[in-house]
Amino acid sequence: TRPETMLADMCVAVHPDDDRYRAFMGKTVLVPMLNREIPVIADEAVDREFGTGAVKVTPGHDATDYAIGQRHNLPIINVMNKDATMNENAGPYAGQDRFACRENLWNDMAKAGLTLKTQPHTLNVPRSQRGGEIVEPLISTQWFVKIKPLADAAIAAVKDGRIQIVPERFEKVYFNWLENIKDWCISRQLWWGHRIPVWYCANCGKQSCAEIDPAACEHCGSKSIEQDSDVLDTWFSSGLWPFSTLGWPDDTEDLRYFYPTSTLETGYDILFFWVARMIMMGLEFTGQAPFDTVYLHGIIRDEHGRRMSKTLGNGIDPLEVMDQYGTDALRFTLLTGSTPGNDMNLSLQRVEGNRNFANKLWNAARFIIANLDKCPDAKPADPITGLTLADRWIRSRMTQVVTDVNRLFESYMYGEAGRQVYEFFWSEFADWYIEIAKLQIAEGGDRAWRTLDTLVRVLDQCMRLLHPFTPYVTEEIWQHLRKACLAPNRPTPPEGWADALIIAKWPEATALPAGTEQVVAEFSHIMEIVRTIRNARSENKVELGKKIAATIVAGEKEKLVAGQRDVIVRLANIEPVQFRILASLPEKPKPAVTMMIGGTEIYLPLAGMVDAEAERDRLKKEMATLDKQIAKLENLLASDFANKAPAAVVEKERGRLAEEKEARTKLARQNQLRPD
């Protein structure tokens, strides 16, 4: 495939167990056209089944061949210049372009009767990523670091626990790379970088290495010296970062304070490019590991799971996203959309959803701050006594969330921590407690003060927990809240008011109050009652603003449910004068939608919910439509279709039939009919 490199062949290799060539091992053959004599050697790397099983070895122009050459101490010949023309070692082909040499050499071999046949062959050709040019492997002089002693120390640092890798599964990647490491080439032929600090003398030929540019050769004093034109590998320079930026090798105040640090956060894709090198160099030059924990995040990919690149044109400009949706929305999406070491598909719809969350934060805060003017002039003598079930529930849940977030932060589950605060704020605080707070504030007096105190406490705690995720909106909200609460008799959080949220005290996990489990269980029961009534309204297509009648038979929970009567009335949109809460009911009302929640029965009279006759007609029409679809599917599945069609297709149609039947059963139940 590259006949021009044959001019640099140094041997022909065969497998040591290949009986076809056993007689030739140790003998010599001639390089075609040059008639240079080279040996036949045995090497287990040769694949006996590929081609003839005899491989020409060119250590100067192939990486695999170079390794064979090193094992057998073969000399190396380079037949190519850096401009891809053939050099003097190419004999009669010197000066020719490599591709011209390829054609000419083959034609000359054919004329000499040395070729047998040609045939198409597909191979991988390495090309430059930027320019697309074919890359020719060439032997060159480079600077190397003997890396195994450094690698052994880096392996030990993780194995003995001085360094922890999160997630732990990446330890295998780390060990695999370091245990199979080869000497590190640290010189690069780039325009920019730290130049190799070595000078070559034109007179004595020796090298000088110095931190400060020398004026003359340190060996003979000649001023005819020239610095190496290569620069250090980027990762070599980057590996020095933890200590070289702090004044090392001098014993500086910064070095003593910041080295070693605690946690390094970076992408898993540079675990061995950068992380391992920082560890190796830190241990080698300072005697200490540069950090105690390595936290690895995943790669941000497009919504289809592809890596973002200019070539694919699928990159997302964060500045444009921030302009459209806000910095906090993008930041929150990135932080909560992934888990340690796992990639994340970034969808702009998720960013938009988190912009809506930022709006939710703002609107909830605006409601709370606006209602602080309704705070009574005097605080209750005992702010805790007299708290409602809803007050105690939301405070207990807030305490639990603080505990969970701290635990998740300590285990580096930042995304899950953010998601838990999100769910708590939106689904519990905003959707439930704030709605109940509107009722309680309207009562005035101590009840209003305790409600506002609870609102301020929870909002303050949520802003502190969300600040690492959404720093801009939380700081703005907190400053408004702080200013409003500095007035006399206004609620104050236990941690007090700092000058700014960014320096405010982080919420600490505390023990849950006595009776928390019962409080949460009782309020969860009320929530389930409200959800059930809301679902029934939705299924029966009751207008949103229409108040309905309801009867709840609560049994032993009668006192609990009766105590939350106003909450249920408001959140489920019940007509107060048509709302009954009983311990038992001898005869169930008919017709009514009947539901059971943990021993509590709920009856919603149909007559008060919808126009019974119109609703019956609508349901009958929907059932008639479903009957036609069910009959059609049953006929289809009873035909040859079930035997001839692919199993997956048949199963899909059976699933559709089951769904249609279930839908018809629900409609019949709503219409107080029995399925046919």
What can you tell me about this protein's structure?
- This protein is α/β, with parallel strands linked by helices and 676 residues long.
- Helix 3 packs across helix 8, helix 12 packs across helix 16 and helix 14 runs antiparallel to helix 15.
- It has a four-stranded mixed beta sheet with strand order 2-3-1-4, with helices on one face.
- It is built from 22 helices and 20 strands.
- Strand 9 and strand 10 form a beta hairpin.
- Helix content is 45%, strand content 12%.
Give the helix/strand layout:
Layout: E1 11-14, E2 28-31, E3 36-42, E4 54-57, H1 63-71, H2 98-111, E5 144-145, H3 148-159, E6 164-166, H4 170-179, E7 184-185, E8 187-188, E9 198-201, E10 207-209, E11 225-227, E12 231-232, H5 234-239, H6 241-244, H7 253-258, E13 263-267, H8 271-286, E14 293-297, E15 300-301, H9 318-325, H10 327-336, E16 344-345, H11 348-371, H12 389-410, H13 414-442, H14 445-466, H15 471-485, H16 516-539, E17 548-553, H17 558-563, H18 565-572, E18 574-582, E19 592-597, E20 600-605, H19 606-609, H20 612-638, H21 641-644, H22 647-670
Parallel strand pairs: 1-3, 6-14, 13-14, 15-16, 17-18
Antiparallel strand pairs: 1-4, 2-3, 5-7, 8-12, 9-10, 9-11, 17-20, 19-20
